[in-house]
Amino acid sequence: MSIQSFHPPVRTLMGPGPSDVDPRILEAMSRPTVGHLDPVFVGLMEEMKVLLRYAFRTENELTMPVSAPGSAGMEMCFVNLVEPGDKVIVCQNGVFGGRMKENVERAGGTAVMVEDDWGRAVDPEKVEAALKANPDARVLAFVHAETSTGAISDAKTLAELAHANDCLVIADTVTSLAGSPLLVDEWQLDAVYSGTQKCLSCVPGLSPVTFSKNAVDFITSRKTKVQSWFLDLNLVLGYWGGGVKRAYHHTAPINTLYALHEALVILQDEGIENSWARHQKNHLALRAGFEAMGLQFVVPEAERLPQLNAISIPEGVDEAAVRATLLNSFNLEIGAGLGAMAGKIWRVGLMGFASNQTNVLFCLGALDAVLSGMKAPIRSGVAVAAARAVYG
Amino acid sequence: MSIQSFHPPVRTLMGPGPSDVDPRILEAMSRPTVGHLDPVFVGLMEEMKVLLRYAFRTENELTMPVSAPGSAGMEMCFVNLVEPGDKVIVCQNGVFGGRMKENVERAGGTAVMVEDDWGRAVDPEKVEAALKANPDARVLAFVHAETSTGAISDAKTLAELAHANDCLVIADTVTSLAGSPLLVDEWQLDAVYSGTQKCLSCVPGLSPVTFSKNAVDFITSRKTKVQSWFLDLNLVLGYWGGGVKRAYHHTAPINTLYALHEALVILQDEGIENSWARHQKNHLALRAGFEAMGLQFVVPEAERLPQLNAISIPEGVDEAAVRATLLNSFNLEIGAGLGAMAGKIWRVGLMGFASNQTNVLFCLGALDAVLSGMKAPIRSGVAVAAARAVYG
């Protein structure tokens, strides 16, 4: 056996995440490792909390990154907020609502599903009806930005409905954080988890989370122990909770935290409203290009995420062959459909550092070339100019 | 608010982990991110499994890194192998046995504790007695190398006793992997977890695990669902299990996996027996220095881990002040005691890349200088030469 060092190709990442990582972040991650109890690292943890509060638009004391991917952030929210026997209303309009159901059931709860078409926002009227029909529900859970379809839901309205019915709110913001307006305090979201590899354009592996005072009050007065030792916030609080003396819980992924810190400094320096506006601007340019080619969006305009553009595969096109050619001949990754959308859509991400003019024009040019080469039913040779015109 | 980029000092890490990271590994981690479904990344995953099998000395098909720290690796072993109502015999001779008990109970099992003094190996006679007294026990769990005390236990004998009583074996090898002989197949360990930030001298954040066929057979025929979605091996198998078509489970921490791959290539190139021998050689040199100074080891010689040297604090010495001076004036981190050992011992790690002559001599010289300066009851000025003599 003799395996060599791994030298990856340089891809342009325009799928559903990971997105292109800012070189500043890759460099930050390779700085020398310090101990996880070193005072300089504790200082970094304190700054991280401040920066994450900025990104989430919250004053929540309990705001931190979970030392594992977004799926673990999701699980942290559910295992801490759901006790055996609890009823949870779960909105499903894509893959990730189904995963929430799994989490509720594995925590011993009962999930009441509110189903919407994939590719559409969650319908507040259905949620209101479910809340009325289930006055004993304790939690409402929904996905703010569905990564599997590119639809954004009205988190503010959903949270209002939940609170009017004495429910806590769990929101998945994996794809919205830093890409679309997300106002945790103003909207009164109680337990929120996200990811690092989307609009923060950081490496994958961490899950930023934030919990309201009401959520923390519930967690610290639970009747039963949280089933996960690793994700029990009563223990994690002693590690991330602040104060000089920290209780050892686990060894933090130090260098990945360097990367997230750098990503958040970049966000702070740009300004979060500017980041939202940039995502919107590049989306409009990409949209102009797609429309010029004759490609159709899956999601109605009012419910469309700027950072994740789901388009229908043109008739007769071998979608996997297109993605393979883009990857192999252009070093360009776009995403396939997931779950019920597999084989039907492409997902083109414009997330974080990847949300820029170069990527928009490069992607349109590459897709135009590949589809034209396959004699797909598109208008060729017009997309790049149409998109470029949007930038003025 | 304006927070700046984080530039850590360059420390020498000789605590209980993280240990010094090889610069090759830091560089590897900063290579360009690719997608987690990219064929080149799938190739890396396949190589990773081969390299981990080499490190664990196993042919186990299910051998992979968990996308989270060692604590999550521990939890993966327990939540998959323990069903509600199961009885588990847990050996405790330090902090981590107590954490195992927590894991058993949160998975709905009953833990039968076998207690040994902290700083001593697990006593096989006590384990045999516990197995006889509990013929309905399904699992035996122990820590191979106790990071909190520096004691190594006889994993082979403990596993034999377990199998003679029809128990599966869960072994914590966080600190032993690559530092001390660990022969997963020969010793018939069924579920084994480790960490990356110890003797692999990689960054923290991943937990290599391996499962025997018997463990996998149990997991795939459980009567109840695994309580954790993120750690359910029945799902993770679809992602890491091999084959061309992978089921999406979560987004792997891609760049951290680059780092682990590089760490394992380094181990492969050195040869694992050479790595074990290097850890032993540097331990002997450090020991010669400590003995020359008059410092006492906590653990009896036959039960001592070469990679984690626990020594008693000399009388009258303010141990926290010593560590603070080493950190602030020497950029040298050594570890404090944990749990019942807090305030009583120091833990000096010689792990992976950090297990080298320079670190041994630097640490001894620094400790000599600081303790002499405090007029501690040690023999001064002899430790470095005594250690150097061991290298010949």
Rg of chain A to the nearest angstrom? 21 Å
Q: Share of helix among residues of chain A?
A: 40-55%
- What is the molecular shape of chain A? globular
CATH architecture tag of the largest domain in chain A: 3-Layer(aba) Sandwich
Distance between the termini of chain A: 56 Å
In total, how many domains does the architecture of chain A comprise? Answer: 2
Unreliable runs of chain A: none
CATH superfamily of the largest domain in chain A: Type I PLP-dependent aspartate aminotransferase-like (Major domain)
Structural class of chain A: alpha/beta
Strand content of chain A: 5-15%
State the major sheet of chain A. 7 strands, mixed
Averaged pLDDT of chain A, please? Answer: 96
What's the gist of this structure?
Chain A is an alpha/beta fold. Helix content of chain A is 42%, strand content 15%.
